[in-house]
Design brief:
There is one protein chain. The protein has 15 helices and ten strands. It has about 350 residues and is of the alpha/beta class. The strands form two sheets. Strands 6-5-4-7-8-10-9 form a seven-stranded mixed sheet, sandwiched between helices. The chain has a three-stranded antiparallel sheet with strand order 1-3-2.
Length: about 350
């Protein structure tokens, strides 16, 4: 999967393929402003305000308490980027199918929280040059305050909502009674599994600020009596024993190799015979094929500045699982999250 300029028509394809086409101009300026425009659309409630129907930029500005000229320019940008559509009067705009599918806050499956969280990620990425030159990562998990943690967890919950139902179907658990969710934070996967299996109880391990958000979401789902939280760092917090399944989702890229290896070994001990260890990661391609893996390389750079780590190869994690004693390993691609995959290992 790649990010890039999309030509309209044959003439633009020919221009794009020309060596004279200034592609870096679009990579540097275009992607930056498109990202920020979508974020601003969420920040000022544009997509939510258009949920009931079309409005003019003037009306949107008045409702949001914004400058009319600035809102008109934002509306123009979002329309050209496919997030808004113009009415026949040329003045009013409505949400496009893309915005109605993903950007409204009232949707059960939304990316609006992730767009809000992207303001924090934008700030982290501003430290990229310091990281490259001096190796000074942001170390996000050590410095975030409560509001940042809340945006972080709700943003990750948006990502989890893409694949939670598919994950629950494809890991093929048989009447499970105990789930261990390490770094579960927002708890959406735990909530989905508990709703699917009425007899299931879960233990969630995470840092206190993340667990606080998870406890709120679990309570809202009516599952507080079935979900227990163990507060602490993954390397120091007991995992319990005799679990039917253990999740390590979207976590390993923030840990060093020693911690990852010991965590996998501890998970193996915490599972009952036949129990399943499931990893959800945006695995990067092997080094020989990495040239084609744009998203994997960009995410690796992001995790570098955020945590001084990087994306992992599937076989790298699979080797740790085999060394820990897991016998059967499977790689499952996700249709609902094509940038990620599951590693499913059986004890």
């Amino acid at each position: 999967m790649r990010i890039g300029v999309i030509p309209d028509g044959i003439r633009e394809r020919l221009i794009l393929s020309s060596r004279r086409f200034p592609l870096p101009l679009f990579d540097v300026m275009g992607t930056m402003m498109m990202s920020r425009a979508v974020m601003a659309g969420v920040h000022f409630g544009v997509f939510d305000r258009l949920a009931a129907g079309a409005k003019t930029a003037k009306a949107l500005a008045a409702e949001a308490g914004c400058d009319e000229h600035g809102m008109r320019l934002l509306v123009d940008a979002l329309a050209t980027c496919g997030y808004l559509e113009r009415e026949h009067d040329g003045e009013s705009v409505r949400n496009s199918p893309l915005a109605n599918r993903w950007m409204r806050s009232d949707l059960p499956q939304t990316l609006a929280n992730f767009a809000r969280f992207n303001y924090d990620q934008w700030d982290w990425v501003s430290h990229l040059e310091d990281y490259i030159q001096h190796g000074q990562a942001v170390d996000i998990h050590a410095q975030l305050d409560a509001p940042h943690w809340r945006r972080y967890m709700l943003g990750l919950r948006d990502i989890a909502s893409l694949s939670a139902d598919e994950v629950a179907r494809r890991i093929h658990l048989r009447a499970p009674r105990s789930l261990l969710d390490i770094g579960g934070g927002h708890c959406l996967y735990t909530i989905t599994l508990c709703q699917r299996y009425p007899q299931l109880r879960a233990t969630v391990v995470d840092l206190e600020p993340a667990a606080r958000v998870g406890q709120e979401l679990v309570a809202a789902a009516g599952l507080a009596a079935r979900v227990t939280f163990h507060i602490g760092h993954v390397a120091e917090t007991p995992f319990g024993e005799n679990h039917d399944a253990a999740f390590l989702f979207n976590v390993m890229h923030h840990l060093d190799e020693e911690t990852n290896r010991s965590t996998v070994e501890r998970i193996h001990r915490a599972l009952k015979p036949g129990g399943k260890f499931v990893v959800w990661e945006a695995f990067r391609e092997e080094r020989a094929r990495q040239q084609a893996d744009q998203m994997g390389a960009l995410l690796g750079l992001f995790f570098g500045v955020a945590s001084k780590r990087e994306t992992l190869e599937f076989e790298q994690v699979a080797a740790w699982a085999r060394e820990a004693g897991f016998r059967r390993l499977e790689r499952k691609k996700l249709q609902s999250a094509p940038f990620a995959a599951l590693l499913v290992a059986t004890k």
